[in-house]
């Protein structure tokens, strides 16, 4: 209940503060970008190296379960569920808009709008949604799965998987509660950022489709539609609600990607992606450690910090979800699966959507950069989709996809947060419907507050702040995983104690002393 009250208060502050809070939030974001960028980047580097060592070392063979356990899902089913739950509608917008930002503010000191800038713009978003990002789900995933399936413990909250906080002392109980609060805070920040970013986009696209005026009334109506969709899904729970949305999520994503690849500049997109893969391999280390100590255009770095905070905020939710569906898999299978299905899925959006928007800009078909700078992101998305054949059908499909994408991720998040905030759940028991519905209301209310403040900077700030305290949670989880694995690895072999050599005395009586055969002593007879 205290957590619920806190977020209600924060939502009211956002709603009443409105646009006046933008300057304050921009100041906070600027401080984080200039003073704490090194911390975000360093945590991600440590996390990535740690799990690459686990995946391809001896610990990668550790099965998350008993030796006889088999995975419940095929590799494709598992990968589809992971991708569908992790990715919300933001990728439908950002994969179109991000390359345009990188084009006019390119990384690596490139000249804006140059040929090299186009190549870097196509690649940079794929880095921010690529291997480094997806490995941020691994700390909670591996720690929770190990405790659940190897130690046969019970994990209702992320704090239960942190070994250094286990115990009945007052200090450890307080620490666990703080961790659980930070987890819920991060989830709320991530969810609020997602909805706060995407509702204006859907509103703009719907306005273009139907001619309805794009105003606050339309946004409120969209919030009501989202509330009904979330409420029905979360009310039904995992079976019959979230699972069906996940399936719809995958097919709408594949449909949109296939449509643009086929009717768009196919050869240009494929050539751009081939170039981006090589460029990412060349620049991977420099992008991972880009703190700009000597100045320069920091747009690309600020985007990375925003995304690193956002991925951190989703780490607890995704960790618990992926852990739940990964019984019977080895650590290597889980990590490599996240890298392949998750990374390739996200990179596909930036390759195709981003490639198409850059092609429109480069050929002069539409000056998308000008639209972005003067009218905002929503106008860019509506314009890009409007250039495709069957415009009305594509616009309708895009809006439907946005709702499905949002509903999948946010319904799952509400379900998980309700688990975190339940006092006690037995094995296999779902949180009460009353608890689930409360968090649906809180999510909608908090997200509406972010929309009232407005602006992409607001979304970036909320997301970055939400991920900030979870850096500590990430490091604690890494320590726990190492402690669990090395404790298992250091099984003490039984000490073999050799049997003592018994010197047996043999007594021999000479024949002349006793008639008959030799008599051996009783000791020897044994």
From TrEMBL:
GO CC annotation, single: plasma membrane
Entry's transmembrane regions: 37-56, 76-97, 132-150, 178-197, 217-238, 250-270, 305-323, 335-359, 365-388, 395-417, 437-456, 468-485
Membrane topology: Multi-pass membrane protein
A Pfam family per the record: BCCT
Claim: Thylakoid is one of the keywords in the record: no
Family membership noted in the UniProt record: Belongs to the BCCT transporter (TC 2.A.15) family.
Alphabetized InterPro entries for the sequence: BCCT_transptr
Subcellular compartments: Cell membrane
Protein's recorded name: Choline-glycine betaine transporter
Single GO term (MF): transmembrane transporter activity
Naturally occurring in which organism (per UniProt): Levilactobacillus namurensis DSM 19117
Alphabetically ordered keywords of this record: Cell membrane, Membrane, Transmembrane, Transmembrane helix, Transport
């Amino acid at each position: 209940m205290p957590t619920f009250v806190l977020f209600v208060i924060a939502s009211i502050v956002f709603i009443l503060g409105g646009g006046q809070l933008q300057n304050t939030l921009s100041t906070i974001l600027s401080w984080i970008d200039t003073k704490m960028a090194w911390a975000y980047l360093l945590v991600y580097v440590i996390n990535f190296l740690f799990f690459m060592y686990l995946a391809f070392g001896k610990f990668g063979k550790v099965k998350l379960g008993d030796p006889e356990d088999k995975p419940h899902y095929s590799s494709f089913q598992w990968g589809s569920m992971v991708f569908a739950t992790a990715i919300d509608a933001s990728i439908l917008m950002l994969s179109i808009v991000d390359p345009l930002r990188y084009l006019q503010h390119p990384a690596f000191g490139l000249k804006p709008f140059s040929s090299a800038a186009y190549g870097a713009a196509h690649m940079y978003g794929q880095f921010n949604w690529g291997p480094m990002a997806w490995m941020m789900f691994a700390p909670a995933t591996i720690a929770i799965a190990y405790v659940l399936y190897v130690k046969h413990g019970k994990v209702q909250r992320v704090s239960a998987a942190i070994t250094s906080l286990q115990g009945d002392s007052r200090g450890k109980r307080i620490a666990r509660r703080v961790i659980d609060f930070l987890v819920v805070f991060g989830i709320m920040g991530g969810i609020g950022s997602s909805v706060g970013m995407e509702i204006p986009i859907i509103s703009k696209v719907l306005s273009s489709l139907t001619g309805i005026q794009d105003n606050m009334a339309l946004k409120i109506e969209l919030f009501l539609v989202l509330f009904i969709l979330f409420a029905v899904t979360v009310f039904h729970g995992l079976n019959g609600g979230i699972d069906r949305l996940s399936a719809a999520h995958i097919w709408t994503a594949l449909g949109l990607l296939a449509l643009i690849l086929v009717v768009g500049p196919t050869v240009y997109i494929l050539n751009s992606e081939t170039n981006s893969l090589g460029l990412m391999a060349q620049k991977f280390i420099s992008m991972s450690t880009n703190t700009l100590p000597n100045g320069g255009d920091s747009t690309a770095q600020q985007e990375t910090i925003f995304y690193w905070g956002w991925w951190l905020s989703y780490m607890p939710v995704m960790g618990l979800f992926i852990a739940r569906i990964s019984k019977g898999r080895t650590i290597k299978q889980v990590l490599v699966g996240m890298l392949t299905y998750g990374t390739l899925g996200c990179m596909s959006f930036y390759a195709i959507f981003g490639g198409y928007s850059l092609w429109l800009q480069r050929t002069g078909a539409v000056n998308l950069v000008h639209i972005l700078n003067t009218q905002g992101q929503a106008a860019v998305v509506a314009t890009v989709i409007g250039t495709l054949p069957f415009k009305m059908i594509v616009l309708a499909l895009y809006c439907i996809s946005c709702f499905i994408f949002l509903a999948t991720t946010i319904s799952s998040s509400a379900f998980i947060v309700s688990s975190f905030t339940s006092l006690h759940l037995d094995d296999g028991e779902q949180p009460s419907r009353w608890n689930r519905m409360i968090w649906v209301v809180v999510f909608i209310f908090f997200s509406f507050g972010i929309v009232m403040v407005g602006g992409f900077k607001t979304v970036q700030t909320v997301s970055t702040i939400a991920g900030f305290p979870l850096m500590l949670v990430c490091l604690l989880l890494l320590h726990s995983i190492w402690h669990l694995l090395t404790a298992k690895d250091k099984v003490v072999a039984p000490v073999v104690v050799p049997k003592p050599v018994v010197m047996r005395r043999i007594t021999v009586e000479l024949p002349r002393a006793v008639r008959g055969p030799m008599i051996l002593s009783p000791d020897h007879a044994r």
